[in-house]
Amino acid sequence: MTADRAALVEARGVSFRRNGREILDQVDISVGLGEVVTLIGPNGAGKTTLVRMLLGLLQPDSGSVHLPSSVCVGYVPQYVHFGPVMPMSVARMMALTRRPARVEIEAALEETGSGHLLEANAADLSGGELRRVLLARALLRSPDLLVLDEPVQGVDYLGEADMYALIAHIVARRGCGVLMVSHDLHIVMAATDRVVCINHHICCSGVPQEVVKDGNFLHLFGSRAGVVTAVYQHDHDHEHGLSGEVSATVRNSHSHAGAMGEQNGSG
Q: Which phi and psi angles does 226 have, rounded to 5°?
């Protein structure tokens, strides 16, 4: 984390064991305001345990976690299931745990491109629609920190890039910090400021361009790592909307990372 970004949540030297098995060993991680940090690692690496610890749902056996009481957290879980027995509208789902005004609900849904789904049955939403609605629900809290567990779960390939672009827009607009948990290596590297690679301990961490060259990362992800080792910087004088259209009003040159061979050349 850069020195000019205040830590929203921070773990130092946390370790955690269950049933004689070491799940986390001396893990350090922090997320600052306006920073997108992505936590990656294989299944069973301890990612979910670490997130629960950062949220105060689990206590470490050793080490410390600091989440100031003043920091408001918005959480988007990986899995949510709505059964067909009791239909629930999106509007009702948005108000399950708090009572926001309808105008607040509508504004949050509009911000995530899902305003048209207000009266839809939550059980009928597609994967991409559900992720946007859940993100809107988290935004109702006006969070300082967004925790997104597999934010593109159930989203098709074309929708993944749109979802990450939406997250970037939210960070730029609101200035919140974001902690993402992801397996989606080829796109997530272009959508994050800092990557933390974990396999019970911190294997490597840093900006994407550094992490993809790290021997621990390459060993951990094998052939999948080859997709992201071609991360590169490029400049262009336009931006794309959430559906991929070129914005005619934004012509500022800027740089961002992309994955060669996994994204088209029109960006």
A: -60, -25
pLDDT in tens, 28-39: 999 999 999 999
Q: Say if pTM beats, i.e. exceeds, 0.90.
A: no
Q: Where are the beta strands (DSSP E) in the chain?
A: 7-18, 21-32, 36-40, 62-66, 73-76, 145-149, 177-181, 194-198, 202-206, 231-236, 254-259
As a 3-state breakdown, the chain gives helix, strand, coil percent values, each rounded to 5, of 30, 30, 40
- Contact of 137 with 94, CB cutoff 8 Å: yes
Cα–Cα distance measured from residue 100 to residue 94, given in angstroms and rounded to the nearest whole number: 8
The encoded tokens of residue 193 equal 């400021």
* CB atoms inside a 10 Å sphere around CB 125: 21
- State residue 229's pLDDT score: 52
CA contacts within 13 A on the Cβ side of 188:
28
**208 CB contacts (<8 Å, ≥6 apart)?**
189, 190, 192, 195, 228, 231, 257
Per the listing, tokens 């069973």 go with 44
The larger pLDDT score, comparing residue 237 to residue 36, is at 36
Q: Comparing 177 with 230, which gets the higher pLDDT?
A: 177
Domain spans, the chain: 1-72+145-229, 75-142
Note the pLDDT tens digit of each residue in 104-153. Answer: 999 999 999 999 999 999 888 888 899 999 999 999 999 999 999 988 87
- CA trace torsion 32, 33, 38, 43 (10° rounding): 70
Q: Can you read off the two tokens belonging to residue 118?
A: 């207000």
Domain 1-72+145-229: CATH superfamily is P-loop containing nucleotide triphosphate hydrolases (3.40.50.300)
Backbone angles phi, psi at 90, to 5 degrees: -60, -40
N-to-C CA span, the chain: 28
Token pair in block for residue 68 = 């100031």
- Cβ–Cβ under 8 Å, residues 80 and 155: no
